[in-house]
Write a structure and sequence with these properties.
This protein is 65% helix and 7% strand. With 141 residues, it is mainly α. The longest helix has 22 residues.
């Protein structure tokens, strides 16, 4: 499927790609570009104009950044609090006392954090959160 559009802003491009288009061209393109694109699509090649590639990358970056900021690995407020303590080197017992919860509950939260962040241990969670700037965002909240 080839999409022809008057729009140069690319805002509908991700939706069209998800719908299965193989090419996105502006209606102002030449008949030669259209013919060449049809041949490319028939051959299994996807076609985007250079300006649309830039727009798509911009939209992707914006969506990725928004998702990262909103989700913070989908950690709950309590999990963010626990991760902040972990980053300071606090033990499970110290975290439990500070948060007024049991050590078992701390361990449960830690398992959930490790699972959501897809890391194997506390150091990995802190390292990943630091690398992605998540710890800074958590401490500001």
């Amino acid at each position: 499927m080839i999409a022809l559009s008057n729009s140069e802003d690319g805002t509908n491009l991700p939706r069209l790609i998800n719908a299965g288009i193989s090419a996105y061209l502006l209606r102002s393109c030449s008949i030669f570009k259209l013919a060449d694109s049809i041949l490319s699509v028939v051959s299994g090649i996807q076609v985007l104009t250079p300006s649309m590639i830039g727009k798509l990358m911009e939209v992707f970056r914006r969506q990725s950044h928004n998702t990262q900021n909103q989700n913070l690995f989908s950690l709950s407020d309590r999990e963010k609090e626990i991760l902040k303590f972990v980053a300071t080197g606090a033990s499970n017992k110290e975290i439990a006392q500070s948060c007024y919860i049991s050590e078992t509950t701390v361990k449960t939260h830690l398992r959930s954090i490790l699972s959501k962040m897809e890391v194997k241990n506390r150091a990995g969670a802190v390292s990943l959160a630091t690398t992605m700037g998540t710890l800074l965002k958590i401490s500001r909240q």
